[in-house]
Amino acid sequence: MPSEPPRSPAQISNTSGDAVAQAIAKYSAGLPALVAPTTESRPSRFIVLLTGSTGNVGAHLLAFLLTHPQVARVYAYNRPSSSNACILDRQNLQCTAHGLDHGLLSSKKLVFLEGNLHAAQLGLQRHEYDELLAQVNLVIHNAWHANFTLSLPDYEPLIAGSRNLIDFARASRQCSDSLRFVFVSSIVSVYSWKHPGIPVPEVPLSDPAVALGMGYGESKYVVERILLNSGLRSSTIRVAQLVGGRRTGCWDTSELIPNLIRTSIAVGAIGNPNALIPWVTVPDAARVILDDALAESFTGANVYNLEHPRPVSFSALVDYFNDALVHQGILLSPLSVVPTRDWIPMLQKTITRAGVPTPESASKTTALFVWGLRSTRIENPRLADLPALQMDKLLSRSVTLAKLIPLEAEDVARWVEYWVGIGFLERCSLPSHQQAGGRSKL
């Protein structure tokens, strides 16, 4: 998810379909014919190369892999930290944030690796690279830089790195027998789906125009297509909006929705886009990905869509937020719920009163709410930017997805509690459950 508010749609990307197609062609060059077998010998044990283990999804993937009885080893591969923090410290921070078992990081199954995907041999020592070539039979490519303000050229190093990882998989000793490659993509890769009322199918989409709109989604689409061209047994999983898990409620405050809530508190109201919310918690998304990656059968090149099969209404979610915000003493009374068309002028007035220095800053803050609409399934077609997704194929592969329960008040309470705990939201009074005679609403 982005580290800053996105720009308005017209500002986000000027990429053409031709530019996306050229990137696919450039990074598919030299891929000789390699047809993914229609049958396989399923590994008796999995040796996994996981990229991006220190991210939110990656930390959960790592924890779940390390506790899986059929996983014998996990190579947790990450790029070096810009702060020089060691990889174990970074992983420990994620364990703390998400309530994951720190003891797993001492597992004999776990091997940490640092490198750059776009470098020769993935930036590893020769003996490390050779060990991976000999051992790995499952690649889960989860690492990505999520910033919705970047353009497609900004993502070229990650695209080049993905091609290197695909080349590694093709050269693996396990390739012709049992190697699996799973790419964690995004719903933003189908940002410009142009068929209102028709959910995005779980198939490869050949027209690059479907991805246009943001460099982030365009880059994911490019790698989807390169992977399909590789001939590997593969899964591409287009993931929708992810939210904090119930254990700690950890939800990165650089992301949109936390900022939308804080902005709404400043306004004193929240807009109601008449939307359905198909968000999935990070832990559940990680389990769904592994349901596919470790499945009994894994053949061909597949594309799946992942969002919540039982979305909740935006109105219900607002009620949950209001209860939690009052309960925590952040609000004395619930936020007003107003039509979106009324909320945006209210936001602009709040910005003016706060003395925001430039019109550009104001427009970015307004765009925050507009982008919020794009992370929902909007019932009003005039507001619909991101489409609904078909999920029949993934539902048939993932027991986790099939059994997901809708988001509830407890989920929202955990998010708010987490944001208060880290100082992102400030109380204006004692929490209601600590006030004399107060009764908890949760």
TrEMBL record:
Give the signal peptide as a residue range, or say none if absent: none
InterPro entries attached to this UniProt entry: Adenylate-forming_Reductase, FAR_NAD-bd, NAD(P)-bd_dom_sf
Keyword line: Phosphopantetheine, Phosphoprotein
* Residue ranges annotated for the Thioester reductase (TE) domain, each copy included: 50-270
Which Gene3D superfamilies does the entry mention?
NAD(P)-binding Rossmann-like Domain
PANTHER family per the UniProt record, alphabetical: ENZYME, PUTATIVE (JCVI)-RELATED (PTHR43439:SF2), PHENYLACETATE-COENZYME A LIGASE (PTHR43439)
Q: What is this protein called?
A: Thioester reductase (TE) domain-containing protein
Give the source species: Pterulicium gracile
